[in-house]
Write a structure and sequence with these properties.
Layout lengths: L5 H11 L4 H24 L2 H4 L8 H16 L9 H4 L4 H33 L7
């Protein structure tokens, strides 16, 4: 997310004739990466430790990516900018786009933290071992 590839991004966006398309691609990859990490954490946690943990189905990041794509496509973006989320923050579509993106990342983070804290609590109580 912090990778600065402005020259490459501008060239790619110019070749596709879609302003800021690389931002959408970068954020979609972020959704996929967050989902993959959450699935990894969920797979590592023993069944007894999961309790009522939220297992985020693949449909959630897919629907978030679809919503972000629709919002991105309908947002007015007259020119290529380094950061559309701040440059076009006055547009309700871009605001909703950022909200959907951050809401998914927050959901994944909270779910992952709950799972990891459960592991630490159970490890402290010696209910299971990592070996």
């Amino acid at each position: 997310m912090t990778l600065r590839t402005d020259k490459v991004a501008r060239a790619f966006d110019a070749s596709t004739h879609v302003n800021n398309l690389t931002t959408l691609i970068k954020h979609t990859c972020g959704l996929i990466a967050a989902h993959a990490v959450l699935n990894l954490v969920h797979a590592v946690v023993p069944d007894s430790a999961r309790g009522r943990s939220l297992r985020i189905n693949a449909a959630l990041p897919a629907s978030c990516a679809a919503a972000m794509t629709v919002l991105f496509a309908t947002a007015p973006q007259p020119r290529e900018v380094a950061d559309p989320l701040t440059e076009y923050a006055g547009s309700w579509q871009i605001t909703a786009y950022g909200t959907v993106f951050l809401a998914y990342l927050t959901t994944a983070l909270v779910s992952g933290c709950r799972l990891c804290s459960t592991i630490l609590i159970l490890a402290g109580q010696r209910h299971f071992s990592f070996v």
